[in-house]
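Box S1 | Example of a co-folding query
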Amino acid sequence: MYRIVFTQVLSRIDPEDIHHLTVGALRLLSATPVVRRLVHRRLAPRDPALRVRAFGVHFPSPFGLAAGFDKDARCVEAMSALGFGHVEVGTITAHAQPGNARPRLFRLVRERAVINRMGFNNAGAAAAAKALGRTRGVPVVVGVNIGKTKVVPESQAADDYVTSAKELAPLADYLVVNVSSPNTPGLRDLQAVELLRPLLRAVKEVADGTPRRTPLLVKIAPDLADEDVDAVADLALELDLDGVIATNTTISRKDVSSTETGGLSGRPLKARSLEVLRRLRARVGDRLVLVSVGGVEGVDDVWERLLAGATLVQGYTGMIYEGPLWAWRINRDLSRRLRRHGVADVRQIIGRTAG
Ligand SMILES: Cc1cc2nc3c(=O)[nH]c(=O)nc-3n(C[C@H](O)[C@H](O)[C@H](O)COP(=O)(O)O)c2cc1C
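Box S1 (continued) | Returned holo structure for flavin mononucleotide
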């Protein structure tokens, strides 16, 4: 059904307009508790076999929504009702900013991919804090992904992240330092260990200082050289971070016809995302929580990432092509597959094929 609507209608409309319409509808759903609870009852994961625990937080399913969809934390309740086991909001910057000029979001339908150069359009940390404050009391796991305000120079990046962390860490189930989006000039340079160490240390101090000690993760790019993936993994261990999210979008255009600038996500990212996950797992074993994201389309991908050592798996682009029942379907299929394999608990398969 969604496929027909997508081909006949949605694919002819500007993707960013559709995004805003969708978020508007989901905001409405979030703000309508009776309907939302009905949807939640039908679509949210309830199978105990899907439950995972990571960095002290309970997740109803390992599959969650990646950052970038709900940039301003406007519809977390609705996304949870649609079946996502967690919702990562953001990227949020200390100061509100408009992002890049439109058009900045492009569908590559044949390749089941998207290119975006949104540029962290968001209403800023204070507005996000307000929105997150409203979600209190709703049972949903919320990750908060923070990034650098565009106009802030690299030399003041740590302070800028700290401003966001102070505002948002107390409201987050986990906090993510995003140093990997390709659409903020210079951002990915912060992945160099000598720049990343002081930045992560400063944010960690804030995260450690919240009443519940907010878990802290770092999100990395697929375009890092393998040695740099290792170096960030080692740094995460050194600083006692809780995990690594791999990966963000890629600037590579291998096997893709479009030459639009920005970050590429979806199917063409799948192989590299999995490769980075395997490398991380080989490096850190189970000492860090690994969150795998990039090119996940269905239960086969989720299964593969879990086996390779991811405790949590995320997706975004898949939802554009699969529609609103995507997360529900993945959870249903994951439950079935566990049963078929005689596995009573999804945690038993995490890292099973890792060396
Ligand atoms: C339109 C769009 C906007 C995104 N914005 C962000 C963002 O603000 N912060 C971030 O960390 N990742 C962002 N991402 C990256 C996703 O979180 C994810 O890492 C990436 O898309 C790979 O997953 P996918 O192939 O399932 O989409 C964005 C992705 C898309 C498609």
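The pocket of flavin mononucleotide is lined by residues 66-68, 71, 90-91, 105, 114, 116, 118, 120, 145, 178, 181, 219, 248-249, 265-266, 269, 293-296, 315-318 (CB under 6 Å). The longest helix spans residues 15-30.
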